[in-house]
Structure formats: structure tokens, C-alpha cells
Amino acid sequence: MWILSFTLVGATMVALALTKWRTPLEERMAKRAVKMEIAPGEDNPMSRPLQPKGPSIATQKLIAEAKEVTERLRQLQNRLELRAKSLDLTGNTYNVKPPPKLSGLTPEPGPEAGTFPTEEPKDGYRGAEPPWEFDDDKTKWRDWTTEMLLWARSNELRNRWNALSQFAACIKEGTRAKGRIRYLMHSVHSETPEKEAFEKLDNTIQVWEWCIRVLAPGCRDWGEESKAIRRLTTYQRGKPVREILDNVAYATKVLGLDPARQTEAFRMNIRKDLQLALAQRLGKWPSDLTLSDFIERVEGVENEQKIVREGYMNWTPKPNFKGSAETQREKSVNTRATNAPDERKRQNHGVKLWSDEDWALIKEAGACFNCGWANHRTKDCKKPREGFKTLSQESTTFLRERIERKKKNGWRSRGQKDQQPMVLNSDCKNSSIETGLCAEASSSPETVRWINTDSDSITITGQIALVDSEI
Fold it and tell me: With bands split at pLDDT 50, 70 and 90, how would you rate the model's confidence at 55?
């Protein structure tokens, strides 16, 4: 009886489900509309096609930020276009007065010639002296430069940047001679109205950008980037150490110079200005401390006091410093290659660090020249370098075991001379090597062809030295 009841109920439910499934879509939507109390003329939301979901909140934020950035870029482009128009003296965009005309410096200008002197300098730049390039027109040339600046400052442009840009356009357009660019660089740092105008700028970095953008092409033309950078670094006096280094790197990047290819003279020129900039914090600058060495020591250090402590206070002058840092590195590499004893490592301002016996053991084991330990390189040693030292019994035993291991593994110890190049019999059967390799001598005594019985042949060019009959 129970089974019959369950069967009837199940059959009824299946029939109802099939009936509902067979009901047309429109009829079912109409029934839902009645339930939702939707008037016949109104739009039925249930009958609308499925709409894709809108962007997420994060996507909407990104879209808003992208629109904001696009708008800022558009505004920046408009400002740059306006600035470019302001640099066009012929367009006279801002209704500025024309530049002053000086008689006697140039011939009568034509319609397109302009009003600027164009003659070449008579002699070269004399270093620290004011670069007077025109012996007969010194006063006129100075007056013309001053009047140009006063003309640019007298015009009511948008800001001082535009005024200086106008002046820069005049100088750049009318003075292509090297000496005049040099004169402008010098006049910026002399007691002239130019210096006063530069000092009135709100931000020192504007001076950098202005000088670099306007004068850098001329500096690159006559190959004296170091003088331009050196004079620009004068404005960094009194600033934090990190900001000075950042500005030097910024100027180097904008000028298109490769820091890895800078000459020692270029770095030393910057160092002279950094010496003045850091005088209050450091007291004095070591005579052999280069900018590259200083930057290497402070790289990644954010705290200014730590920069001074790590970059300067722990600085140890290089004994017998000669040449640039690159030259020193090349010398050290060559020293390791030829296994020549480096006696300079024993000395620290004339103080002997190790006895002859300890020194020979340290050299042969390849240990640190400063502390005598073999788990780090000499330049990474953190221990002080002053005073005479003696190896402990533990260190001596460890170094001797290290030497024995190196000899056993066939490594040539430091200071060991190269052996004569070996010439083996071409008959592999007569070879005394029992390592699966045989060798045969070629026509050249410096080339030995090694044949591996298990793989392809290998040709080694150079002098092959055997240590303890092992390869």
C-alpha cells in the first residue's frame, strides 16, 4: 500500500514538471508579470535580454586614474606648445619687446639674419680666467649679454622660467661660438646680474634644467661636459649629501653621459665641488677619494648620518694611489693572474701587519690579507686594519689544511710558478694518465689535444700544467 502511494505521488510530480517545462516562455513570463504587478504596457524586466555586468570598482578606479593622467598629459602638451611658441622670437607670442640691437658687433642684418654677433672666437678658453674671446669688444660683448638678460627680465611673461627661456633662446640662437657659451657659463658664477637672476629662482633644480637643456648641446660640441657639470654643482652647496649625489646623477643622465665611461678627470672635477658642498659635514675630503668610490660606499644608504659614517669615516686611503679606480682594478686582476706577491697588502700607512711566515701562509692559502681568514674577500673584511697581527693556532691549522686540500685537488697555490708546457706522446696506449683521457701533441707545443674516450674530443690552447699527476 505504501509503495503504491509513493508511486502515485512521484508520477504526479513528474507530470506537473513536464507540463511546466512544456509551457511556452511567453506564457510563463506573463504569469510572472502578473505576480510582480506589472502593467501590460510597461517594460517587463524579466523579458529583457541579459546585460553584461559593469566593470568592477577596481576597474572603475583604474579607468578614472587613466582619464586623469590623460588629461594631465594633454595639459602638459598644451603648456609645452605654448612654451615652444614663446621661444619663437619672430612670432612674438607674448608681445614682448624685440631684443636690443648693438651697433658695431655685426654687419647690417638682413630680413632673416637676426641681430646677434656670429664671429668665431680668436683664441681658446684659458681655464679659470674670464673667457674673453673678443679682445676688441670686451666691453660691448659684456654689455650685450647684460642687456639681453635685462631685456628678458623686463618683459612681463608668465614667470621667471619663461623669461630665462627667452634669454636662453637669444643666447643659443645668436651665439654659436664656443667662447660665448663658456662666457655665459662663467657669468652665471660671477658677480653679475645673471647670477642675481639665477638666485631668484624658486628651486635650484630649475637652474640645472635650464642650463642643461640650453647649454648642454654646446658643451657636448666642444667636449667639456665636466666643466659644465662642475659649475652646475656649485649650486648644490649646503644641500644634503643624498640630494647632491642624486642631482649629479640626474645631470649626468640628462646630458647623455655614461657613468661607466666617465674619465677620472671628470670625476675629480665633480669631487672638487662636492668637497666644498660637504665641507661642513665631513671636515675635509681625502686627497685620493674619488666620487665613484664614495658613491659605491653610500649606495643604498638612506640616512644621511649613516652616509657620512659609512662613506667617509671608515674610508681608508689607497696606498700609492695612481690612476683611476678602473686602473686599480685592472692592476689587481693582473696581479692575481700573474700570481705576483702584492706587498702593498701587507702595509697600512707604513705599518707591517703580518710576520713573514704568516704572510707566506696567507698568500699561499688565498686568505683575507687583513684578518687572515678564508671565508671572505679582502675588500669585504669588516675588521680594523691597524696594528701588527699574529695568526692563531686554529687559523694556522685551518690554512695549512686548506693548502693541502688545494694541492690534492690539483689547484695551483698562490705564488706557485707555472710549470713547463707538457708534450705528450701521440700514442694514447703509452699514456700514463688513467683517468679515461689520453692526449696527443700537435704541431704547436702550446696546443694539446685531449681525447675523451667517453665523449667528443676537446682542444685546449695554452700551456697545460700538471700538479701531482692530476688534471
Answer: low
Query: Which regions of 51-111 does DSSP assign to beta strands (E)?
Result: none
What pLDDT, in 10s, does the model give residues 268-298? 444 444 444 444 344 444 445 554 555 444 4
Go through 295-331 and write b for each residue having 16 or more CB atoms within 10 A of its CB, e for each that does not: eeebeebeeeeebbeebbeebeeeeeeeebbeeeeee
Least-confidence region, from 31-45, 181-195, 245-259, 354-368:
181-195
Give every CB contact of residue 201 below 8 A, 6+ residues apart in sequence. 160, 161, 164, 207
Task: Name residue 439's beta-bridge partners.
Answer: 450
CA 42 to chain centre: 68
- Domain locations in the chain as residue ranges: 2-41, 74-106+116-220, 224-338, 343-408, 419-471
Q: Which residue has the cell 505576480?
A: 35
Q: DSSP letter for 122, please.
A: S
Instruction: Specify whether the CB–CB gap between 451 and 439 falls below 8 A.
Output: yes
pTM: 0.20
Whether residue 241 contacts residue 198, with contact meaning beta carbons closer than 8 Å, is answered with no
CA dihedral sign, ordered 288, 290, 293, 297: positive
* Cα–Cα distances in angstroms (integers) from residue 66 to residues 24, 58, 74, 95, 325, in the given order: 48, 12, 12, 37, 46
Residue type at 179?
A: G
3-state secondary structure of 450: strand
Distance, CA of 419 to chain centre: 45
Strand, helix or coil for residue 431: coil
Q: How many CA atoms lie within 13 A of 124 on its CB side?
A: 4
3-state SS class at 135: coil
Handedness of CA 337, 343, 349, 355 (dihedral sign): positive
